[in-house]
Amino acid sequence: MDYISENEIDGDVKPILIKTYNRFIRVLRSVFNIHCFTKGAHSKKSMHYKGLAGDGHKGNYAESRRPTIEDENILIENLMKIIHKKDKSIFEQAVLAKLSGFEGIGIYPDWYPKAGLHCDMRDNSLAWVGLNAEKLRKKLEKTKDSQIYVYLV
């Protein structure tokens, strides 16, 4: 079943993006409200302009949204790719930490000598990114953009 309606698609969106969003929405088991695909203000080289990105947020739980066997197999296949990958990004490490049972996960891209994770066993699920304030201030002083991007590689 498709969960993205025609009136949500705001431009030339690639079918693979819609197919992947539908899978994500089934696995999420919630409504997922998409704000934009190709319209809006994005960085110059944004995947939005290529029809390969969307922005949205999770809505309410939806009992009717259940992952298919194919969805589950694709998720397992993608998870196995991450598990067997030699060089895991800090984001991939955080995903594996969550799937391993940690509830609190802090991503620290500025730790020296390399990016790291805080992982804990709190009672509620929480994730955050800890940034070096001095580095961030310097970047803010130099930019005219309204947003700062932190790439978790």
Q: What does the model show?
A:
- This protein has helices spanning 15-28, 69-84, 90-100, 133-142; strands spanning 30-36, 55-61, 104-108, 116-120, 126-129.
- With 153 residues, it is an alpha+beta fold.
- It has 2 domains: 1-84, no CATH class; 85-153, no CATH class.
- A hairpin with a 7-residue loop joins strand 3 and strand 4.
- It is globular, with a radius of gyration of 18 Å.
- The model has no long low-confidence stretch (mean pLDDT 87).
- Stretches with pLDDT under 50, minimum 5 residues: none
Number of domains: 2
Radius of gyration based on Cα positions: 18 Å
Supply the helix-strand structural class: alpha+beta
Task: Please state the average pLDDT score.
Answer: 87
Helical content (DSSP H or I, runs of 4+): 25-40%
Give the distance, in angstroms, between the N- and C-terminal Cα atoms: 34 Å
Given the structure, what is the number of helices?
4
The ordered H/E elements are: HEEHHEEEH
Q: In a nutshell, what does this entry contain?
A:
The protein is 33% helix and 18% strand. By secondary structure, the protein is of the alpha+beta class.
What labels would you give this structure?
about 150 residues, 5 strands
Compile the SSE list and pairings.
Elements: H1 15-28, E1 30-36, E2 55-61, H2 69-84, H3 90-100, E3 104-108, E4 116-120, E5 126-129, H4 133-142
Parallel strand pairs: 3-5
Antiparallel strand pairs: 1-2, 3-4
